[in-house]
Amino acid sequence: MAAGPYSAATLWLADAENLIVDPHDDVFLVFHKLSGDTHILNFLSAGILEVLKNKGPANFVTIANWVWKFLDIDENDCPIKLIEDTVLQLDDVGVLYPAQKTGH
């Protein structure tokens, strides 16, 4: 489970300075320098990571809008709930973290 508590207003950040992303066909290998762990990400997880690395902190709705545009998909193809769940999974493994917690 993600480091809680969090809300829809929580802003999420990528640990960009500690990540090395290496794309391979349809997966992305992500090495986290601090933990020494390597993670295998799908296109959605990598897309979320990429937009947060490039655009900075954002809540779930903003992340979803950025990801839909970045990956050229729409909400029917990738519901916001899937994006929220993926953000929380990326938090679980330490490549994303909440920058600000509000609305508890």
Write a concise keyword list for the protein shown above:
104 residues; alpha+beta; 3-stranded antiparallel β-sheet; two-stranded antiparallel sheet; 3 helices; 5 strands
Detailed description of the structure:
The protein has 104 residues and is α+β, with helices and mostly antiparallel strands. 37% of the residues lie in helices and 25% in strands. It contains 3 helices and 5 strands; from the N terminus they run ββββαααβ. A 3-stranded antiparallel sheet has the order 2-3-4. Helix 1 packs across helix 2, helix 1 crosses helix 3 (80-92) and helix 2 crosses helix 3. The longest helix has 13 residues, at 43-55. The radius of gyration is 13 Å and the shape is globular.
| Helicity, as a percent range | 25-40%
> What is the molecular shape?
globular
Largest sheet: 3 strands, antiparallel
Output the number of helix runs. Answer: 3
Strand content: 25-35%
Rg, rounded, reads 13 Å
Query: Can you list the strand order of the major beta sheet?
Result: 2-3-4
Q: Provide the succession of SSEs.
A: EEEEHHHE
Given helix and strand content, the structural type is alpha+beta
Arithmetic mean of pLDDT: 90
**What ranges have pLDDT less than 50 throughout 5 or more consecutive residues?**
none
Quaternary structure annotation: single chain
According to DSSP, the number of beta strands is 5
Distance, first to last CA: 17 Å
